[in-house]
Amino acid sequence: MRREGQTTIAPGTVIVRDLAFRYPPWRPGLAPVQALDGISFHAEPGHTIGIYGTGGSGKSTLCLALNGIVPQATGGTIRGEVMIGAWSTRTHPIAELASRVALVLQDPDASLIGRSVEDEVAFGPENLGVPPVEIEQRIETALDRVGVAAYRSRRSSQLSGGEKQRVAIAAALAMQPAVLVLDEPTAALDPQGSAAVAGVLRTLVTEKRTTIILVTQDPDLLAALTEELLILDAGRVVRRGTPREVFAHGAELRRLGLTPPPLANVAEQLNAMLETNFTFLDHPTAVQSLTDALRKSPLALGDPTS
Amino acid sequence: MTPEHRELIIQVRSVSYRYGGDVDRQAISEVDLEIRRGELIALLGHNGSGKSTFARHLNGLLKPYAGQVLIHGLDTRELPVHRLARHVGYAFQNPDDQLFAATVAEDIGFGPRNLGHDAAEIERRVGMSIERLGLSDIAGHHPFLLSRSTRRLVALAGVLALAPEVLVLDEPTVDLDAWAADRVLTVLRQQVADGGAVLLISHDMGLVAATADRVVILRGGHVVANGPTRAVMTDLSFLTGNSLALPPVTELAQALAPHGMRPDVLDPQEFCDAYAALWHARHPRRVMSGP
């Protein structure tokens, strides 16, 4: 915890209160585009919040509102408040916000500039004025965490999509952010790459108490990593809860154009076929529930031989 | 007609490629593959296994260092790229690699215009692509003002407008929302039903299991599997040996195999049918029961 002004508030605390945002019209004379409308949530250090919504639901705008790009660089009309610790992203300088909130984008080419991997990772801390010896340590730790230490002197432009995304995450980690915002971080990765990223995020939560805001179209990743899940539709939060609570509403999600995890679909379909009440999301709980249901034959109650 | 008797479109014969002639970076080695009409083939492998390098040989973006790629018997080395474009359409993983025009309709029309079609034909093809991908509401929009999901659909529509015999799609459903993913799947199935072929590059084991007729797996630039989907995608020891996972429902079915579950289901419907049969056998009086 760090003292900021009169109140003690951790730099990793994220408070979003009744946030509404309209982009300026993209051509004069046209109506402004309403991107977010009345979003509220609260994350303490070490929490992971998931954001799930279709393309155009406002997910990426929300990410940009967390580091101040929205509205400071985009213009537009904003209502409500986004606080990172005691800093309001509406007014706090973007450069300083960058020392606290790191953003990993869906397209690694948007954040890498084709230099050597170590230079890419050093770029952020150099701009923060971190001493060279410490930068060196940060590069090493960050590359190690995401498993690309071997590529340290390769040019990032020569890496595959998955490798690039891991370098982009390492570059974010080198900023030692209190809040990590990830917009589709695993879209370009193969299953092993995704699992590696999920592992990195878990470690950050447990070891560093990093606050994580995770936007992804991968329902399994949301189920595995998040404590609270917000469903965004046309800029509004239309449902929130634990992944188990949210993914139990399969029909509603599909109406919104979203997919529950494959195994949650199986649970729902079996419930419809068998009048059971399965709620599993992942493999271990599915195996347990489905095995139990086979064993617990109601006949067994009156028939000791079965 | 058995699959082997369908007309051959593409024949890849012992193709090898290395970037910049660098012997240490042999991207693919002695790859063989045949693509026939009506086939949906999935190509699996890790990042860096050579999938994209291989796919770029099919439309002549890359020419083999050794071996041959034949399209209807003609070597891609001897076919100009615009001729190849009639046979093989390639939708990139990143839509921004191919979008550039001022409106969605213009972007989609770029391919057919380049192939030298007349205005009426271009309009017909653009209309057909827009219709099939459900883009009519945004035909006049600028591609870069659309969400990434929609930009991917626009990029795919541009490839469809070339009416290629073989559609090569690199991770077509990644980061798509469910509506967009459904549209892509409909397009894939239609392509095959119309007598074309699809090469689907994907990491999504569930998607591959539910859609492909045949699965090819690349590892370190070599083909390590080429067989019917059910045989390849339910073979636990082979997949884990190649650091791949079973599709989620297949994995679940195999975990329940000791209780009598059939271990080779490929999609959720098959899983539920098989589990329900088992459940009814154990609950003959159809009494309600919770998990």
Structure description:
The complex is a heterodimer of chains A (306) and B (291). By secondary structure, chain A is α/β, with parallel strands linked by helices. Chain A has 13 helices and twelve strands. In chain A, 40% of the residues lie in helices and 22% in strands. In chain A, strands 8-9-10-5-11-12 form a six-stranded mixed sheet, with helices on both faces. A four-stranded antiparallel sheet of chain A has the order 4-3-6-7, with helices on one face. In chain A, strand 9, helix 7 and strand 10 form a beta-alpha-beta unit. In chain A, helix 4 runs parallel beside helix 6. The C terminus of chain A is likely disordered. By secondary structure, chain B is of the alpha/beta class. Chain B folds into three domains: 149 residues, 3-Layer(aba) Sandwich (Rossmann fold); 67 residues, no CATH class; 45 residues, no CATH class. Chain B has eleven helices and ten strands. In chain B, helix 3 runs parallel beside helix 5 and helix 4 crosses helix 5. The chains are: A alpha/beta (306), B alpha/beta (291). At the A-B interface, helix 6, helix 7, helix 11 and helix 12 of A face helix 5, helix 6, helix 10 and helix 11 of B.
CATH architecture of the largest domain in chain B: 3-Layer(aba) Sandwich
CATH superfamily of the largest domain in chain A: P-loop containing nucleotide triphosphate hydrolases
Overall SS class of chain B: alpha/beta
CATH topology of the largest domain in chain A: Rossmann fold
- What's the tally of helices of chain B? 11
Distance between the termini of chain A: 59 Å
How many strands, which pairing sense, and closed or not: the largest β-sheet of chain B?
6 strands, mixed
At the fourth CATH level, what is the homologous superfamily of the largest domain in chain B? P-loop containing nucleotide triphosphate hydrolases
CATH class category name of the largest domain in chain A = Alpha Beta
Tell me the number of strands of chain B: 10
Percent range for helical residues of chain B? Answer: 25-40%
The count of domains of chain B is: 3
Q: Determine the strand fraction of chain B and express it as a percent band.
A: 15-25%
Tell me roughly what share of residues is in helical segments of chain A.
Answer: 25-40%
Low-confidence stretches of chain B: none
The pair of chains with the biggest contact is:
A-B, 53 and 52 residues
